[in-house]
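Risk register update: the risk of archive-format incompatibility is retired. Evidence:
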Amino acid sequence: MTTRRSAILLAAVAAAGLGVWAFAPPLRSAPEADVRAEVMAADRAFYKAAAEKGLDGWMGFMADDAVRLAPIGTKAHVGTDAVRKLDAELFADPKARLEWEPTDGGAFADRKYGWTTGRAKIVARTDAGGEEVRWTGAYVTWWRKDPAGWRVILDTGAADPPKK
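Archived output:
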């Protein structure tokens, strides 16, 4: 086939594809604001489950193919076994707890994926009976909606810079 005939065939296929797309009915999905609210609620439920059930509550929100980057720039921990192993130490100390609150969130165009960002800290009880903040930082969590609800597919965070 000559180059000219190939170009004409390619243009015809592309035009046909655009014609189908142009007249296709719009996708029916929840408005972005509704999905944003769902993702923010999922993040808060994630926090509640982790606060009440520790590592098991934390893992209950992880997708099977979840990725954890802790801290940013380190090796990726992929899958629930790797994530559980990474985060077991975080939840092992009975005197410490991880706290977080989403401050923003949204949905990607397909409404099947979303994200949340927020502030996090690790607070620990001292031997004197008080509490101290051991770590503060920001986090980003990516979510995917599946039949069981919103599941974490990527979670990472970064520590705040040291105070001068």
